[in-house]
Amino acid sequence: TWKWVVGPMFLYLCERLVRFWRSQQKVVITKVVIHPFKTIELQMMKKGFKMEVGQYIFVKCPAVSQLEWHPFTLTSAPEEDYFSIHVRIVGDWTEGLFNACGCDKQEFQEAWKLPKIAVDGPFGTASEDVFRYETVMLVGAGIGVTPFASVLKSVWYKYCHDATNLTLKKIYFYWLCRDTHAFEWFADLLQSLEAQMQERNNADFLSYNIYLTGWDETQATHFVVHHEEEKDVITGLKQKTLYGRPNWENEFKTIAERHPGSRIGVFLCGPEGLADTLNKQSISNSEADPRGVHFIFNKENF
After folding, report:
1. Angle at the Cα of 256 from the Cα atoms of 254 and 260, rounded to 5 degrees
2. Residues with Cβ < 8 Å from 184, sequence gap 6 or more?
3. Whole-structure pTM over 0.90, yes or no?
4. What order do you get walking across the sheet with 70-73 strand by strand?
5. Domain count, the chain
6. Does position 269 have pLDDT exceeding 80, yes or no?
7. What percent of the chain has pLDDT over 90?
8. What pLDDT shows up at residue 153?
9. Which residue range(s) make up the domain with 64?
10. Are both 155 and 292 inside the same structural domain?
């Protein structure tokens, strides 16, 4: 038995040593941004740190806990000179990080007072393949929207630098959430992208739909009253917030009709149930003819 065990154990120990060495490298917090509804953004720098879109890291804050490591999706783009994560305060560890960063104080926090942070990673995800397709569907559910912050930022940087060499030509973005208030920082990012694309006369590059799934009768009434306004009253975007859940069969058929003969990448970060639905739709709406439309499904579950 030991002959079968010693090889994998040796590889495991090597992997743990590499992770320990990486986690000991110095990390500098360059900026802490407090977003509404107790969400903080940590912007950091680390020597030799290289990332791709949609990747994630493990974070440890010794001031909060010496042993706990927590995974966070990177919300910055590879083109930026820092890497960042967004942390929503929902538990003891995140509350401790919130306080350690001085976010509970009114006065300005000096940089040297910020806590030490250990970072391990980055680690790859399916979202890295976004730029291999001309057309993509990005589906984020709740906190699963965070990988696409990195993707959309990187798309913008690439688009501004050299749009002619960018393989990606069309993005269909779907955001399903119970309450948009917890992710107002992401709505701000969409607002910025929307305005910049309009300035360049390419508003059709990004099509997005926001679905509020946890709506009640009061919200529905509010929606009806303000539906004719130019901008959505919830997000401030020109695209109006939709209520309920999308009809995925209709969405897939519409996209297939618009892009015949294309390979369309479908990227999900969300629950397993939604993954099953999108996988089935990707298969049923792909044509048997190799020259026809094909949906390629990629997922990240939480």
Report:
1. 135
2. 35, 36, 37, 39
3. no
4. 70-73, 56-60, 118-123
5. 2
6. yes
7. 5
8. 83
9. 23-121
10. yes
Beta bridge pairs of residue 88:
39
**Nearest C-alpha neighbor of 56 from the set 85, 31, 82, 27:** 85
Residue 263 lies in a domain: yes
Pair (151, 274) in one structural domain? yes
CA-to-CA dists, residue 68 to 42, 92, 104, 155, 183, angstroms: 18, 12, 22, 34, 25
Tell which phi-psi region holds residue 236, choosing left (phi > 0), alpha (psi between -120 and 50) or beta: left
In 3D space, the residue among 52, 42, 50 whose CA is nearest the CA of residue 115 turns out to be 42
1 occurs within a structural domain:
no
Q: Are residues 243 and 179 in the same domain?
A: yes
* Neighbouring residues of 121: CB distance < 8 A, sequence distance ≥ 6: 22, 55, 56, 57, 58
**Which of 121, 149, 168 delimits the end of a domain?**
121
Q: What would you measure as the largest C-alpha separation in the chain, in angstroms? A: 72
The rounded distance, in Å, linking the Cα atoms of 125 and 102 is: 32
Q: What is the mean pLDDT of residues 157-177?
A: 78
Cβ-Cβ contacts under 8 Å for 54 (sequence gap 6 or more): 73, 74, 125, 126, 127, 128, 130, 147, 148, 150, 151, 300
Q: How many Å separate Cα 97 from the centre of its chain?
A: 21
- Same domain membership, residue 248 and residue 176: yes
d(CA 49, CA 295): 33
Peptide bond into 122 cis (omega under 30): yes
CB-count exposure of residue 155 (10 Å: 0-12, 13-18, 19+)? buried
Instruction: Check which CATH number belongs to the domain holding 93 and give it.
Output: 2.40.30.10
132 found inside a domain? yes
141 is a domain residue? yes
